[in-house]
Amino acid sequence: MTYIFYAIAEIFANIIAYLTNPIVCLFANEVGQLPKCLRFWQTYDNPLDIEWMISEKIVPRIFRYNFNKHYKYHYENKGNGYCIPGYVELINGNFTIKERIQRYFCRLAWMYRNTAYGFSREILSKSPYIYNIEIIKQYNKGYRDQLTISHDKSTRWYNKTFKIYLEMPWCKYFYLRVYLGWKLTNDLLTDRNAKDQSTLALFINPFRRLK
Length: 211
Description:
Elements: H1 2-24, H2 51-55, H3 67-70, E1 71-74, E2 77-79, E3 82-84, E4 87-90, H4 97-113, H5 117-124, E5 133-142, E6 145-152, E7 162-169, E8 174-182, E9 200-209
């Protein structure tokens, strides 16, 4: 299956990105954009400067700085077959040395959260027509207890585009999360004649914490 080769490429790309993220991060400009030659390290829909990574306390406290003093963050705008990337406006470019160090680690946290995302999207993604996406099995039994199995019915078995998404609680504290294949849409309100830009999914974790 094509997916096996794609998954191997994804693993190698992630290893390279994990090793090089600290260096690549240094090449970002004042508004959190990497040079085009390093686009494989960056998400397609956002800069490296993300306001909610700080306001929602995703990054450790030691790395949080006054984001809104320096930037105005504009969220991405996504719809049927289009995406207007998020971006930041630089309001005050006078960063202290401490703030520059904190900003560096905030950017680095975003890169590790989305490791090699650009590579995955540009090289390993697929674009099936949404009207070809067929749900084989689906249920939602409540919080963190759901399953979706779908595929692109126009693809053959050896080149099958599919999606397996599972969340299953297995004890009081943890649930199993499995995401394999491609991130196919299952939104029936989406324009069925549009193409779905689906990035590769390769995730298995039995120790996701139930909140």
